Amino acid sequence: MTARYANGNRKAQQKAYNKTKKGLKLRVRANKLRRKLKLKKGDPRDAAHYKGSTTKGRPQSRAKNRASRLKIRK
C-alpha cells in the first residue's frame, strides 16, 4: 500500500504532479499569494484567489475554501 496525504492523494503521485509545468505554476502562485497576504504556515486560514485571478485574493477559512473546490470537481 502506498503512503497518502490527509486529503487522500497518493504521495508519489502528488510529488510527480507538483513537478509538471501545470503543478509547478499552481504551487508558485499559491505560495506567492500566501506571502502577499502574510499568512504563516499553520494559520487556520487559506489564501483564496478571487475568481479568474492568479495574483489577487483574500484570506479564507480552510473549510470554506476547500469545500468550494470539491464542488467544482464533482
Description:
- The chain is an alpha+beta fold.
- The chain has helices at 11-19, 21-36, 62-73; strands at residues 45-49, 57-61.
- Strands 1-2 form a two-stranded antiparallel ribbon.
- The model has no long low-confidence stretch (mean pLDDT 86).
- It has one domain (11-73).
- 50% of the residues lie in helices and 14% in strands.
SSE layout:
Blueprint: H1 11-19, H2 21-36, E1 45-49, E2 57-61, H3 62-73
Antiparallel strand pairs: 1-2
Tag the structure with descriptive keywords:
two-stranded antiparallel ribbon, 74 residues, 2 strands, single chain, alpha+beta, globular
- The sequence of SSEs as H and E is HHEEH
**Count of all domains:** 1
Give, in spatial order, the strands making up the sheet with the most strands. Answer: 1-2
Could you name the ranges where pLDDT drops below 50 across 5 or more consecutive residues? none
User: Between the first and last Cα atoms, what is the distance in angstroms?
Assistant: 26 Å
Number of strands: 2
Largest sheet: 2 strands, antiparallel
Instruction: Estimate the helix proportion, in percent.
Output: 40-55%
Nearest-angstrom radius of gyration?
A: 13 Å
Strand content is: 5-15%
**Structural class of the secondary elements?**
alpha+beta
Nearest-integer average pLDDT: 86
Number of helices: 3
- Overall body shape: globular
Entry summary:
The chain is 50% helix and 14% strand. By secondary structure, the chain is an alpha+beta fold.
